[in-house]
Write a structure and sequence with these properties.
The chain is α/β, with parallel strands linked by helices and 406 residues long. The chain is 36% helix and 17% strand. It has helices spanning 25-35, 71-74, 90-101, 122-128, 153-159, 162-165, 184-207, 217-223, 226-235, 269-279, 293-298, 300-311, 316-325, 336-341, 343-347, 389-400, and strands spanning 16-20, 39-44, 59-61, 67-70, 80-84, 105-108, 133-138, 167-168, 176-177, 212-216, 252-256, 261-265, 330-332, 351-356, 360-365. It starts with 15 loop residues before the first strand and ends in a 6-residue tail after the last helix.
Length: 406
């Protein structure tokens, strides 16, 4: 038994994943599976590769300063092996089918019906491998009037309601809907894909059967509206944009300081009373307008300007030192430079450096998962296009050989 098949090889070292996805949602899911030990074989077009290989700058560069790989591709493809195959050819289709026979999971994000014409859809491959867990990620799902539409994160943030909740409120400077600063719908879809795949693996352990997972960006986006969606369903009224404020908690937003801004995240009345003490405004905590969260929400327009007048009197660091000592949740609004310089972020090891065959090393963001017995292992940086084609196909040939041991 080799190291990769032992618990030390990762919690999922017994799984083999065939990754036919591109861009972010699918690759994010397969990278998470790879981080947990699964063997992930990424299938790419021999000439173009994953779309995100061309999504730059910025690029990782070699010693001569020449671009090697886009940062975007690097963020979602570590711990994988790249195999360059053209699935539009009979030979490419045959090789995919043989890989699917040896795989536990397949992840794809082709348009609905796109793989059926190649005989690589769920119905075709599950007939060959009934234990296969086949996860299809699309913009709008396998059914419904929008099923044939292409879907991208930005579109779905708009269609799914997230942008209606994000941005400066109407009537203020810069008012209007705003997308989130990362492709959050894609990332959330990747997380749901991992959850669904692991549930299907657990079911297969009991039933011996694989299954098809139909996952849509729009479904994920709507489901993740959480309390805001529930607010609408309860009241029948669409929530409005509040900028950095919270619809149900006050004060829970950003406030100006003497040298910038800070986050004040008061979650209960006791924390508000503590803030008032630190701010030298103890009377606010007993004022009927502000004594309870419900009252503060009702009198938001009165309280927030008063808070702003106080918070500008100290620097961000002074406020954070004083409020943390009083157990009042607060924090700075960091740039990414400040994030990765933060001592806690460094202590948690949230930057990792992986060996790269040309660049020497490539930085990345660590997995947030901390396992006590099967830790995440960073085995390899995101692969060059087709870097593992020969070795994977040689293994495939060996597996076909009658002399190959079971």
């Amino acid at each position: 038994m080799n190291q990769e098949s032992t618990p030390q090889g990762g919690a999922l070292s017994h799984l083999k994943v065939l990754d036919l996805s591109r861009v972010l949602a699918g690759p994010w899911a397969s990278q998470m599976l790879a981080d947990m030990g699964a063997e992930v074989i990424k299938i790419e077009h021999p000439e173009r590769g994953d779309d995100t290989r061309g999504w730059g700058p910025p690029y990782l560069k070699d010693a001569q300063g020449q671009p090697l790989e886009s940062a975007y591709f690097l963020c979602a493809n570590r711990n994988k092996r790249s195999v360059a195959l053209d699935i539009a050819t009979p030979e490419g289709q045959r090789q995919i089918r043989e890989l699917a026979l040896q795989s536990d999971v397949l992840v794809e994000n082709f348009k609905v019906g796109g793989l059926a014409r190649y005989g690589l859809d769920y119905a075709s491959l599950s007939a060959l491998n009934p234990r296969l867990i086949y996860c299809s990620i699309t913009g709008f799902g396998q059914t419904g009037p929008y099923a044939q539409r292409p879907g991208y994160d930005f579109m779905v943030q708009g269609m799914g309601g997230l942008m209606s909740l994000t941005g400066v409120p109407d009537g203020e400077d810069g008012a209007g809907p705003m997308k989130v600063g990362v492709a959050l719908t894609d990332v959330l879809t990747g997380l749901h894909a991992v959850s669904g795949i692991l549930a299907a693996v657990a079911w297969r352990e009991r039933s011996g059967e694989g299954q098809h997972i139909d996952l849509a960006l729009l479904d994920v986006q709507v489901s993740c509206l959480a309390n805001q969606a529930q607010n609408y369903l309860i009241t029948g009224q669409s929530p409005r944009r509040l900028g950095n404020a919270h619809p149900s908690i006050v004060p829970y937003q950003s406030f100006p300081t003497a040298d910038g801004e800070m986050i004040l995240a008061v979650g209960n009345d006791s924390q508000f009373a503590s803030f008032c003490q630190v701010a030298g405004r103890a009377a606010w905590s007993t004022d009927p307008r502000f004594a309870t969260n419900a009252a503060r929400v009702a009198h938001r327009a009165e309280l927030v300007p008063l808070l702003r007048q106080v918070t500008v009197q100290r620097t961000t660091a002074q406020w954070i030192d004083a409020l943390e000592a009083a157990n009042v949740p607060c924090g700075p609004i960091n740039t990414l430079e400040q994030v990765f310089a933060d001592p806690h972020v460094q202590a948690r090891g949230l930057r990792v450096d992986l060996p790269h065959p040309v660049a020497g090393a490539t930085p990345g963001v660590a997995s947030p998962l901390r396992f006590s017995k099967t830790p995440v292992r960073y085995r390899r940086a995101a692969p060059a296009l087709g870097a593992d084609t020969e070795s994977v196909l040689a293994e495939l040939q060996a597996a076909r050989s009658p002399d190959h041991p079971e």
